[in-house]
Fold this sequence. Notes:
Family (chains A, B): Belongs to the spermidine/spermine synthase family.
Distance between the termini of chain A: 49 Å
EC number (chains A, B): 2.5.1.16
Strand content of chain A: 25-35%
Number of domains of chain A: 2
Oligomer: homodimer
Largest interface: A-B, 41 and 41 residues
Protein name (chains A, B): Polyamine aminopropyltransferase
Helix content of chain A: 25-40%
Shape of chain A: globular
Organism (chains A, B): Thermaerobacter composti
GO molecular function (chains A, B): spermidine synthase activity
Amino acid sequence: xxxxxxxxxxxxxxxxxxxxxxxxxxxxxxxxxxxxxxxxxxxxxxxxxxxxxxxxxxxxxxxxxxxxxxxxxxxxxxxxxxxxxxxxxxxxxxxxxxxxxxxxxxxxxxxxxxxxxxxxxxxxxxxxxxxxxxxxxxxxxxxxxxxxxxxxxxxxxxxxxxxxxxxxxxxxxxxxxxxxxxxxxxxxxxxxxxxxxxxxxxxxxxxxxxxxxxxxxxxxxxxxxxxxxxxxxxxxxxxxxxxxxxxxxxxxxxxxxxxxxxxxxxxxxxxxxxxxxxxxxxxxxxxxx
Amino acid sequence: xxxxxxxxxxxxxxxxxxxxxxxxxxxxxxxxxxxxxxxxxxxxxxxxxxxxxxxxxxxxxxxxxxxxxxxxxxxxxxxxxxxxxxxxxxxxxxxxxxxxxxxxxxxxxxxxxxxxxxxxxxxxxxxxxxxxxxxxxxxxxxxxxxxxxxxxxxxxxxxxxxxxxxxxxxxxxxxxxxxxxxxxxxxxxxxxxxxxxxxxxxxxxxxxxxxxxxxxxxxxxxxxxxxxxxxxxxxxxxxxxxxxxxxxxxxxxxxxxxxxxxxxxxxxxxxxxxxxxxxxxxxxxxxxx
Lengths: 289, 289
């Protein structure tokens, strides 16, 4: 089962994740459920102690059952509750289905495009992490595109999307171009007036420099932009950062409408708390305006 | 440098922390600054990439420069700002000095007792982590007792302390008895009317069962009790839980007075946000009343 450059060892029951700054993680695999190498990356689904089932791409944990709802609810409901309405939503990445699940909770959404580079991620997650996407994969409003997110967005009509949700892996992975100023310019063009872009953007303490750079690139394109945070358990970074850029909508002002029932982390209070910037995070407030 | 049962290897530059559920951490040591075995435990101070200097007791990270202020400010200022006044403060544990530093910022505090089991922790931290305690170690209001925290509290006068801050290691370590119902009963007796106890209590997602048990024990003693949270970066648990028990004070109601200047995480807003209980944490709200 082990491959070049890889350290999956089902006999010892350990998987080494070494992308992190300052430390390395050895995940204790209770059960290795699936392992394949797609055209783009190495894909593992495993059962972890306490964290539940988890997806790893190129040895980096992407999603775990224990806390995936925090990330997905805060990525989706913060912008969608800040918008007066959201008819057309674009998800870039998000092949595990969690972001899609949250988007389809909104009744007024008429059209969801999900653009995932790697067909294998969707296939594997539908089979091995079925509760991530749940019924959302069969939603009639959904169109899946197996394509490069940047290229897809370049071909999109101007002013089309009310929300663009970038649920991708980190800079330095195949998602690297999705953190470029050119990408933000393309997203700005594709956003409708009043629309909002949100993207996962690592963490404010461990990846302070990368987050600062992302915000600078965003600021070059979006006069209205900023950052918000939610707890992250399974990424082991403490705080997950999301960056946002908008055309006339300000998610930092709090929800403009009521989010769907059934959320486990998102509430109007957690929406507002996500934008708190204690002095230690003021650097991000200052740089993001 | 390596010892029985230990994996400090300054040549490879790795230190293995294996107390965690579901995963194991290998810290990348930039520099091993100090290593000794005291009468109670193994003590390491090392320089880590990104996390700064860190203290390890028995291979478990206790404090790191990167984010220690979040933990210490939230442990101290939440109860002290909720109290109308705090003249007498007891710190149990806290041998690194960070809790002491925050307590001594309060001008109205007249008396601070710090009870640390292991004299070596104080000595090592004063030498190798001097910014933790800063000038607080020389504060004339401070008395240090090298003693068992539980025994010290049993001998304390009834109704003496306005605040008891338990800044100890986790259950299963030498601090185990500090999480017993008997300890909470003793603390209740030593608290003044209107006083408040706060204790670090692991994390709500990774240590859900342990936190639930701690809250049940606390509830058997304190009709007024609960839990609050702050981000934790260097413990790699996402959210740090603190439990509290009070005699007539309710920290969940927010600050009753202004905290000292110069905090980096504590603000009136972060005080209130610490008590947010989204549905996923409602189990702790229900069990803690």
